[in-house]
Write a sequence for this structure.
């Protein structure tokens, strides 16, 4: 089923929309949750929570890209669950490294109503930045910060060392920060 049809079902309040969404995006959302949580039950629960949140968000929102919409919800829920789970414990190094790397990027986005324009501008700049990266560098960046893949997984995917992947990510972040400064956004 096409994404537009699924969104239309949500807008019309048809409960079948959740079934169609699950059928189409379960694996995608589960992978995002799994990469963050590394736990089957927590990941499945996160995906189910994603469907519930999507039901509550549509309407009033009408996502342009449904996969990105549900992926972002899943990512946020999984990160929240991870923070709660490890609030008093030491996080595994993969997630600790990833948390440190993404902290600065996440701090750029504010969820208050008055900052929605700045958020939209940020996403436009980010999308433009990503499309101007070389295809390999873009895949590395997205695999790390969107799909939450480990450095080891990304290195294997590209036939490179973890150190070279780390270097590529550093250079890409540096370019992004420079671009954001040029656009007048504080970094």
């Amino acid at each position: 089923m096409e994404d537009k049809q699924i969104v239309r079902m949500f807008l019309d309040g048809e409960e079948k929309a959740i079934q169609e969404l699950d059928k189409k995006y379960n694996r995608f959302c589960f992978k995002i949750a799994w990469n963050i949580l590394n736990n089957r039950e927590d990941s499945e629960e996160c995906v189910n929570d994603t469907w519930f949140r999507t039901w509550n968000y549509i309407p009033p929102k009408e996502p342009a890209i449904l996969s990105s919409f549900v992926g972002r919800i899943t990512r946020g829920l999984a990160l929240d669950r991870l923070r709660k789970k490890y609030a008093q414990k030491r996080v595994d190094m993969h997630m600790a490294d990833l948390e440190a790397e993404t902290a600065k990027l996440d701090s750029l986005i504010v969820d208050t109503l008055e900052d929605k324009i700045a958020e939209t501008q940020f996403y436009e700049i980010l999308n433009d930045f990503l499309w101007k990266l070389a295809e390999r560098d873009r895949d590395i960046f997205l695999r790390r910060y969107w799909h939450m893949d480990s450095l080891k997984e990304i290195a294997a995917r590209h036939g490179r060392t973890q150190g070279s992947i780390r270097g590529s990510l550093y250079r890409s972040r540096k370019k992004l920060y420079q671009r954001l400064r040029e656009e007048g956004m504080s970094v």
